[in-house]
């Protein structure tokens, strides 16, 4: 019988081939892994950058965590307690009907000087930006050191100021204080540490002039002490509340506020040079009555002002009574008196 030929199995020969194929694929995968790992080792900045981007989550959890940490600090809690206490005292003084004591009138007087309040708030932001506690102490000491001698020896110092060239332009001291406090917020930290105490001394000097020229002024110690205490509260408390959160993020907001302060200072300065109303015409001579002795002339009686030109020309009717308010609701110009801080007492000299 013819032997049948069985097909030869080629599995033996195929195994090495398949083995080689598997080995080649494994080597390719391993090489790809080595290249990936070497690329990862050669670009640590990429991994670091990815980690940094991952740390900055869109929900602002890092900022909120920093805010919570700042709120928990004892410095913020004490400053916030002082802020709440001061606001509560002022609110109680204004809301509860009662007769004001001199102590209350002192800090309410300080709050009424709006331009100096803005200047002190600007310096308070500078306190929040201060890098060292010594800078905070220097600002507060410069502020108090400029007030104390003025209130203790106000009369001789103020008399000397009036005799100097500064006496004619003394009304510009408050706008200059606001301007400098805004400028301080624009300076870099290296210059701000020296400029802030100078600005604080000028603000304190301006406040001492307002206190000394007030009706109560330095004659009532409770009034003067309370006015200075309210000023220190405005200057220190907001900045101490801001210090736990200081950082680079505060630079741009501080410069925006500084720009506002400088613009406000320019507006206040211009308003001081603009007259309230044109010069009033001279008064008419006093009326006479021939039936009275001496011709009925009474020099003590007030003279009547001239009529409105529109009334004289027949363009409008004369009012029946001069006791009522003007029909247009006009308000007569205020009497500045001799207060140099309001521009009064100037004789037109430069």
UniProtKB/TrEMBL annotation:
Keywords, comma-separated and alphabetical: Membrane, Transmembrane, Transmembrane helix
Q: Where is this region: Disordered?
A: 1-55, 284-350
Give me the stretches of Gly residues compositional bias.
Answer: 340-350
Q: Which portions of the chain have biased composition (kind: Basic residues)?
A: 1-18
Question: Polar residues bias: where?
Answer: 39-48
Locate the compositionally biased regions of type Acidic residues. Answer: 310-326
| Stretches with biased composition (Low complexity) | 327-339
Q: Where are the transmembrane segments?
A: 75-96, 108-129, 136-158, 170-187, 194-211, 223-242, 254-276
The protein's name: Uncharacterized protein
